[in-house]
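In this section we walk through a basic example: taking a raw amino acid sequence and producing a predicted 3D structure, encoded as discrete structure tokens. The instruction is simple. Fold the sequence below.
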Amino acid sequence: MYDSDRAPALRIIEGGLEHPAVIALVHQHLASASEHSPPESVHALGLERLRHPDLRFFTAWLGDELAAMGAVKWIAADHAELKSMRTADAFQRRGVAAAMLGHLLHIASDMGCTRVSLETGSMEAFAPARALYARFGFVDCTPFGDYCVDPYSVCMTRAV
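The resulting token sequence is shown next.
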């Protein structure tokens, strides 16, 4: 777990899509999604889509090192979707993803959302992500927004 008493403080900021480390992590996220899912089941967002005004994009830093990224997308006045949650390899299993998820949930609440949903993969490679979401109270749900039933996808939701 991330130990804030013995490490630099995790700093989560809005933006950062122009930073080379963030660009690399977005590309890694897209490549990983494509490695584990057929093209029609990849819902990860590229750089241009992450710049869209209906999204708020955040990066997490430990010192000068990029630790994670994530976004909140409005899908209705009271409903947000989490997008592009990804932890850099060097920071996995250290509590960084939990810190980012907590931050994104706080942002969604501040935006007036009463529900937050997400889509992730159904394959074993996505099991750690699904376990993290479950620890935060997310439960499986039917597809929302533009998603449809897909054996490669799991939709989850929770009240904020």
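Looking at the output, two observations stand out. The helical segments are 20-36, 47-50, 96-110, 127-135. The mean pLDDT is 94. In the next section we compare this with other chains.
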